[in-house]
Amino acid sequence: MFFQIIGVFLLALVEIWLAIPIGLIWGLDPWLVILLVIGGTLVGVGIIILLAERVRSGSNRWLDKNRTGDATLSLSALFAQIISALQERLHSGRLYKVWLKYGIIGLGILSPVLTSAPIAAFLGVMLSADRLKLFIWISAGVAVWTTGLTLAMYFGLILLGI
Asked: HEC states along the chain?
């Protein structure tokens, strides 16, 4: 049982849609699965928020330093072009549309359904969202969706006789 608990927690670091059914199939109590998935996801989100802030501030320094307009293809100029392309790509996805329409609350609540909480955390930091508010709203979204999905899957497995 110890390895199952660790396994569900580690899966939740990346994706709740995978951790919930595996935890239930392994025979863990649904309330334990809810706690493990929420805990694992929020640890992953916290790590992403801390790392993404460093990436964002570092990439902004690189971009400011390398926007000289000359055609030299140094490693730093190549890195600056890659970061610019990533920032442009962030502004065209589904989560960005949610960000524009609903702000940080919508991003946090809808992130577990649209992509995953860690990806939403990364996007939020790249869009200069307040990190504490981002973490709070993603936590609320993860708690609501994890509880709902776990209970729905648990009762679905009971109805199917699995």
From this structure: CHHHHHHHHHHHHHCHHHHHHHHHHCCCCHHHHHHHHHHHHHHHHHHHHHHHHHHHHHHHHHHHHCCCCCCCCCHHHHHHHHHHHHHHHHCCCHHHHHHHHHHHHHHHHHHHHHCCHHHHHHHHHHCCCCHHHHHHHHHHHHHHHHHHHHHHHHHHHHHHCC
